[in-house]
Design a protein that fits this description.
- The protein is elongated and about 130 Å long.
- By secondary structure, the chain is of the alpha+beta class.
- The strands form five sheets. Strands 1, 2, 3, 4, 5 and 6 form a six-stranded mixed beta sheet that branches.
- It folds into two domains: about 140 residues, Penicillin-binding protein 2a (Domain 2) (Alpha-Beta Complex), CATH 3.90.1310; about 350 residues, DD-peptidase/beta-lactamase superfamily (Beta-lactamase, 3-Layer(aba) Sandwich), CATH 3.40.710.
- Helix 8 packs antiparallel against helix 16, helix 9 runs parallel beside helix 11 and helix 11 packs across helix 13.
- Helices cover about 35% and strands about 20% of the residues.
- A hairpin with a 2-residue loop joins strand 10 and strand 11.
């Protein structure tokens, strides 16, 4: 092998060696570059993804926030723990007009969010105003997305009433400063604002609903302008239901100035008519001037007193009646004769004793005052059949409770009372005499309350149909009332129902409870054909609840 060939061979080896090393280095560099590029792409991908996410969620601008002072109020519950009133966190949105840059633009935006509202006047003023109190989360987001620095968010605590209208007159309202201004909210304002313990009432949500439902139906049937009902435990005064119509939604916090929104159960003062005849007979039994079988002969159809006439409402009422029959047949003249035997002094004392004409302390402050005037011969005569004296449905309920529960004192209450020592204030046997008579008013054809004779509940009671006073006399407008006690063999409950200005309904079909054929229409606008019907429907509905729970 020549020297040239040898050099060439060595050169090839060198080239092979050089190529090998060059390729190995190149591969290493290439891998590092690729890794770096992938890293860059990875970072860019993260950044891009983040941008996409951020762009998909529009940032809600921050606005001025105010945390309102603690205005917590403890909850109000019914007797089974159902919430009637509760304090919850809320957000209120307002505007400071001085910070608004473009008023026209802002007004247009607000109109889109709140189409039923107008803020033209407020936004041109200088004072802070609320756009929406207790704003919903959806509306709040829409407002905040406007990004206007004039908005002010107020974090607060609001009072909410889950049942709306159901307990409006009893629960009452609070003002903007969290102070109770009516009902339970007012009476127990201190307790509700100083303790976290809920305030538990004697009221029952289910009973309240059923009674209100039937009172609402009565308006459609008899076109009355208002109504009221009280259901009370006859032995302790615990009120299980108190309804007054018309009512109002507590959540709207509207100013209730119209007289139609008066609490007709406690504040309204009425002449109740013949329901007072029960008190007249009870007074006669209390002072032992009559017994149920005492006979009254030759009762006239009309008498006069100070030039004013007093007549029987029904000419078919016999002239000879016992004291018991006078109440069953609802005789006016007979009731006057019983009252004359009782006398003014005794009758006044009796009405004081059972709470009809004495001041009544109650758990809400909206309580009316009995209107009586001066006693005299004619006053005694008219009071005997329920005219010339005006009182409240609450006092009427208390009076019926005492004369039917064995003569024991009770105090109507919305708060459950501890077991108290019973105090008898009437004769022991008075209730034993009066309750069977009340039962006959409902269960016999001679009575005036047959539509309330619900099977299985031994209902007793007395009707009252009264003309409303007007301009020194009486109008044709009525107040129809039914005060009932059940069961009469062992009294547990009083139900007093009142319809304010009902009208006769000639098209309404009455269904008797003794299996007689239905009766269509009636021209009489009396309690027996209006309020008694409603009371019967109520007891039909609430009877099973009372039987199982109480």
């Amino acid at each position: 092998m020549s020297e040239l060939d040898n050099h060439s061979q060595n050169s090839d080896k060198f080239n092979d060696s050089f190529s090998y090393k060059e390729n190995k280095s190149y591969l290493k560099i290439s891998f590092e570059r690729i890794a770096f590029i992938f890293f860059i792409f990875f970072i860019l991908a993260i950044i891009f993804s983040s941008k996409v996410i951020l762009l998909s969620i529009k940032k809600i601008p921050e606005i001025q926030k105010i945390v309102k002072k603690d205005n917590f109020r403890s909850s109000i519950l019914d007797n089974e723990g159902n919430i009637l009133a509760k304090s919850v966190p809320v957000v209120n949105i307002g505007i400071n007009p001085n910070l608004v840059i473009n008023k026209e633009k802002l007004l247009i935006s607000l109109k889109l969010i709140f189409p039923d509202k107008s803020f033209d006047e407020e936004i041109n003023g200088k004072k802070f105003f609320y756009v929406k109190k207790k704003i919903s989360p959806e509306k709040l987001k829409q407002v905040l997305l406007l990004g206007d620095k004039s908005f002010i968010q107020e974090d607060s605590i609001a009072r909410v009433y889950p049942n709306g209208n159901l307990f409006s007159h009893v629960i009452g309202q609070i003002d903007n400063d969290n102070n109770g201004i009516s009902g339970v909210e007012k009476t127990f304002d201190y307790e509700l604002t100083t303790t976290k313990e809920p305030l538990k009432l004697t009221l029952n949500k289910d009973l309240q609903y059923l009674i209100k439902e039937e009172l609402s139906k009565s308006k459609d049937i008899f076109q009355n302008i208002g109504s009221a009902a009280i259901l009370m435990d006859i032995n302790n005064g615990n009120i299980l239901s108190m309804v007054s119509l018309p009512d109002f939604d507590l959540n709207k916090r509207e100013k209730i100035n119209d007289v139609k929104y008066i609490n007709r159960a406690t504040k309204g003062v009425y002449e109740f008519g013949s329901v007072f005849k029960t008190f007249t007979l009870a007074a006669g039994l209390q002072y032992s001037v009559v017994e149920p079988e005492t006979e009254f002969k030759d009762l006239k159809k009309k008498i006069t007193c100070a030039g004013n006439s007093i007549s029987e409402y029904d000419d078919k009422i016999p002239s000879d009646l016992t004291a018991e029959e006078i109440l069953i047949r609802s005789g006016n003249i007979g009731s006057v004769r019983i009252a004359e035997k009782v006398g003014i002094e005794n009758y006044n004392e009796f009405l004081q004793t059972i709470g009809i004409i004495s001041n009544l302390e109650f758990d809400i402050q909206e309580v009316g005052t009995t209107q009586l005037g001066r006693w005299g011969k004619c006053k005694l005569a008219t009071v005997a059949f329920g005219h010339g004296i005006a009182t409240t449905l609450l006092q009427l309920s208390k009076g019926y409770s005492i004369i039917s529960n064995g003569g024991y004192e009770i105090t109507p209450s919305l708060l459950k009372k501890e077991k108290l020592q019973k105090q008898r204030i009437l004769n022991e046997n008075l209730s034993e005499k009066i309750n069977p008579i009340l039962r006959k008013i409902v269960s016999t054809k001679e009575g005036t309350a047959g539509f309330a004779n619900v099977k299985g509940y031994e209902i007793g009671g007395k009707t009252g149909t009264a003309d409303q006073p007007s301009m020194g006399g009486y109008s044709k407008k009525k107040v129809n009332t039914f005060a009932s006690v059940f069961p009469t063999s062992d009294p547990k409950f009083v139900l007093a129902v009142m319809l304010d200005e009902p009208k006769a309904n000639k098209e309404f079909v009455y269904h008797y409870r003794d299996d007689r054929n239905p009766y269509k229409g009636n021209w009489r606008n009396t309690a027996g054909w209006t309020t008694v019907w409603v009371a019967g429907q109520i007891i039909d509905k609430i009877g099973p609840i009372l039987a199982t729970k109480y």
